[in-house]
UniProtKB/TrEMBL annotation:
This is Protein-methionine-sulfoxide reductase catalytic subunit MsrP. The keyword Signal applies. Heterodimer of a catalytic subunit (MsrP) and a heme-binding subunit (MsrQ). PROSITE patterns: PROKAR_LIPOPROTEIN. InterPro entries: MsrP (IPR022867), OxRdtase_Mopterin-bd_dom (IPR000572), OxRdtase_Mopterin-bd_sf (IPR036374). Residues 81-236 form the Oxidoreductase molybdopterin-binding domain. Signal peptide: none annotated. It comes from Thioclava litoralis. Mo-molybdopterin binds at residues 60, 63-64, 118, 153, 202, 207, 218-220. Part of the MsrPQ system that repairs oxidized periplasmic proteins containing methionine sulfoxide residues (Met-O), using respiratory chain electrons. Thus protects these proteins from oxidative-stress damage caused by reactive species of oxygen and chlorine generated by the host defense mechanisms. MsrPQ is essential for the maintenance of envelope integrity under bleach stress, rescuing a wide series of structurally unrelated periplasmic proteins from methionine oxidation. One of its GO terms (molecular function) is oxidoreductase activity.
Amino acid sequence: MMRQDWDIYKDRDVTPKEMFLNRRQIMAGGLGAACVTALPRGARAEALTPNSFEEITSYNNFYEFGWDKSDPKKYAAALTTTPWSVEIDGLVERPGTYALEDLLKMVTVSERIYRFRCVEAWSMVIPWSGFQLSDLLESVGVQSGARYVGFTSVLRPKEMPGQSGYSGIDWPYQEGLRLDEAMNPLTLMATGLYGEDLPKQNGAPIRLVVPWKYGFKSAKSIVKISLLKDQPLNTWQALQPKEYGFYANVNPQVDHPRWSQATERVIGAGLFGGRKETLMFNGYGEQVASLYKGMDLRKFY
Ligand code: MTE
């Protein structure tokens, strides 16, 4: 596979890759041969060591299962994820409801280690498996009038306790990207982590991952992808528009109205060692800053 400019392994410490591959060798039933791609150049000085499987799968936001970070792991087993299909609709040449296994035949799955920064100012490093959303969009054919992509998570109140009681959220969970953001090579549809199928608490069987944006953009358990002319309303913006916007680019210079975004708590780094400075676009500026040229990022937060 051709090297991309965000493939850090050409110029940085390879420890995480070796670690990751060693773990893969131990695990049976992984996704098979895949290339490992990760952070951009310039990340060299930082040891990019993935969080443990345990950390990534037991400290979650998935409000369909409750508000506590431990709720998703506790309750997500009730969600049925097979069979699964994804509807692709709107301004698209080949709309339809695609069985997940058919959809996966249209794309190339690879592995990528990405930083993950939540708007609540905590962060992890996660080794995902998945495919570029651009791969899928190219194969279904985007019509010329499409300017945005909408994502809809699953609606199953019987299997997801947070969807039946009062939560203030208008389910299903919705997210959106501008089409050029969706087509960026970093934008991933994740189907696994640590070479295993995605655990339910992390958004099985398929979720969005947009590593330069706050984690809430990364909608979980997706059942619909819509090609749209107009900018869609995303769940957190609908709930609290003064605190959460459409863009949600990681930006240490633009604080949340209730807390600073300048630093982040590194999950797994312990009580005293665990804060570091947040990077503009979460460290992916080289790949994505041009998407926002001339935009006032204080206004479009
Ligand atoms: N997707 C759905 N459907 N429901 C959610 O509550 N939470 C978001 C995002 N995607 C959420 C969601 C938030 S706030 C974050 S930080 C990430 O998922 C958390 O992903 P993780 O649990 O895999 O770390």
